[in-house]
């Protein structure tokens, strides 16, 4: 129930040669923990996320999702793995324009073969968790940027993934909304017990994460515990694994 | 179809526009099909209704095609066919376009000369040298009923029966005896004896060596349905109408293909997201094709219904419109099949959408 990257090297074609985007990167993200990946632009953060999401096959090294090593898997099997085990939160909310907030989530359940009868309550439950039940029937153009980002997060959780991958979730948000989103991610990681990777170039709001790793030119620095640098634990953050009946943190309402 | 249905509703303007185009093309194709079939029947129904499987024409000269208007067969040619082994029926048939009058009414008609009692004409037993069987349209145009008299190219004949809808080269058919027909038809210049008939209508069994008899008799035999191209106006008329119909089918496939190409490109961002989230390519293709088929079927259904309604409204008037399942449903089925093909080719690009593009900031 975790994410393992073992000795992953990824290169891109670059003129006559190859550009090394990830250089023998190893990383372990246990379940119920949040690892933030920070680093300057072009350092390889998105590449790392894409490899973990099985969207790119690395040149060498292995990716293991919930005990399944992806090396040698066909495209269909990888798609299925993504569907069942991996939740992706995109940098842009990437919501489908024709669907309401609730339907964005139902699609995922539908893809997983769940009946509409089961998909609907699941969608409501998750929209409730991100504080959007009242907006369930709105389409993306009727939601604010922060609300869209919360739907994006809820959607990633529909099929109870073991790995949650999040790309620059705050880049389109102002400071306060960004903080609330990180807070929400932290709480959901503990509550849903996902192995979460959060990619960001923005070091603000990282007070509550479990670990921070730095990428520099495709190399991973040593992880340091995030909470040590945090000024304090944010209010409303429950201890890991303490069940679903959490009160929502005050920040979720800011969005 | 979860997303596909919602897309249909969400982008209703675009789909309604495309649906309207499909409705209009289907309507046009339906009308053209009915008209083609109707015109065709006016042209050939007298031949397609013959109880014969082959038609023997006089061998045409070098470089000439078979033609009902140029062919004349002699008594000798007919005899050779009648005596040939494997030929169960060989009946002379004379065809001439002429004018018929009855009272003040007159009409261009096709005079068909057959032997009295022949099975080539409906009510053949009522045909005699002074008696004619009229097709319904001929009787209608001349305002005659059974027992009335009419003048066929100057020859007085009694209407012995009104039967059938036979029509040849857009003129209604009047059946009379071969002898009467011979007096009407102009003699062929190059023949020494008077023409016996235009063609010989044949019924053959497997024992017939058609080629050998053709060579002996100096004839050329084709099947009844192949002989339709020997009706002067039929080939050109039917050909140009079918060409138009073919173009309409091609245009609709292209238009639908173009629409779905643009549509698929527009939503390739959504497709990338769905793929990244774990939707299989097969699933997405199925959805997109289902959406196209829904649109196509809906549009085609409305268009076909409209065409059938228009057809029903004009049938019985002067417009030759044939409203049958073949003229209504076949074009509809072809529209759906070709449209789906056009859509499938454009939807194919879903396969090449890279889910990786869903990451990052630009979509
Ligand atoms: N498809 C590609 N083809 C070639 N080179 C690529 C490709 N994608 C990324 N790169 C290169 O790989 C390196 C790492 O890119 P990556 O997108 O992972 O950086 P990043 O840390 O996410 O940067 P940013 O913070 O700007 O998003 C960069 O030098 C980039 O130019
Ligand atoms: Mg990036």
From TrEMBL, chain A:
SUPFAM superfamilies: P-loop containing nucleoside triphosphate hydrolases. InterPro entries: AAA+_ATPase, ABC_transporter-like_ATP-bd, ABC_transporter-like_CS, ABC_transpr_LolD-like, MacB-like_ATP-bd, P-loop_NTPase. Residues 222-255 are annotated as: Disordered. It comes from the Bacteria. Keywords: ATP-binding, Nucleotide-binding, Transport. Residues 3-242 form the ABC transporter domain. Gene3D superfamilies: P-loop containing nucleotide triphosphate hydrolases (3.40.50.300). Residues 232-242 have a biased composition (Pro residues). Residues 222-231 have a biased composition (Low complexity). GO terms for molecular function: ATP binding; ATP hydrolysis activity; transmembrane transporter activity. The keyword ATP-binding applies. One of its GO terms (cellular component) is plasma membrane. This is ABC transporter ATP-binding protein. It comes from Streptomyces reniochalinae.
Automatic annotation (TrEMBL), chain B:
It is found in: Cell membrane. Keywords: Cell membrane, Membrane, Transmembrane, Transmembrane helix, Transport. The keyword Transport applies. GO terms for cellular component: plasma membrane. Pfam families: FtsX, MacB_PCD. Belongs to the ABC-4 integral membrane protein family. This is ABC transporter permease. It comes from Streptomyces reniochalinae.
